[in-house]
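Troubleshooting log. The previous run stalled partway through. Resubmitting the same four chains, unchanged.
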Amino acid sequence: MPRATTTSDAFNAVAEPRRREILEFLAPQERAVNDVVAELRLAQPSVSKHLRVLLDVGLVQMRREGRQVLYRTNAKALQPLHEWASRFERYWRGQLGRVKERAEEQERRTNETTKKGRKR
Amino acid sequence: MPRATTTSDAFNAVAEPRRREILEFLAPQERAVNDVVAELRLAQPSVSKHLRVLLDVGLVQMRREGRQVLYRTNAKALQPLHEWASRFERYWRGQLGRVKERAEEQERRTNETTKKGRKR
DNA sequence: TTGACATATTCCGTAACGGGAATATGATTC
DNA sequence: GAATCATATTCCCGTTACGGAATATGTCAA
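Second attempt completed without errors. Output:
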């Protein structure tokens, strides 16, 4: 099985650095495709393709305005990513993480290691 | 250019769902490889490979203990991801985001009604 | 040693990926 | 209509992904 498609979810879509840049650029205000091209200095087809991916996973929204197409970041779609990372917050800071860690470490030693009569 | 390698950074490493599961499992306490295999019901070589990727980007740490190799999540390596997502927090909640949104919505509306067939 | 257990690596196959170039679609103006 | 501007899609290419199966490495025990 190959890697999951970039359009499968926000995690995959955001793995590409240029797409992250695009999201940052489109977050404060909506912009036309050519603005992205100019600002990030990417080829136009490349931008269109990245925007397509972002659109498919709901990370951007789109609106037609005359000849141009305006895109904007849909920040809500980044919430799951943020929340997922937040689950680890307690482990990189704060005491709760350490205390719990220590307690479970303790339990592991007594349970798992003993289950097969292992030494050490 | 193909997609960046999974070992290039945390974003790419975390794009794979199984690796996220592994990180969750290894966050509270360190575990042997076989524990991961048993708990997540993955093939052993698969787990070893995923752990290798996670190790390369610093998302887990490793320690040998007799025959087994114990892994644990290095939560600090997830901080950049969390911080990146946090930059969008103001856009999905909070007033700044909404105010700006409303302002633009307003402007969009005025343009549409006022200047119906203009040039750009 | 030899054998078992635990984990890692290699090789294979299929399936994206992302860039570039060319081309297609869409909307506006003349 | 035709020309033009703005964006999207298609095709080709070299690279990488992940899974499965087989095999290799490493550690302990008898």
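Takeaways: Residues 1-4, 32-34, 44-45, 47-49, 51-52, 66-69, 117, 119-120 of chain B lie near DNA strand C (CB under 10 Å from a C1'). Chain B touches chain A through 39 residues (CB under 8 Å).
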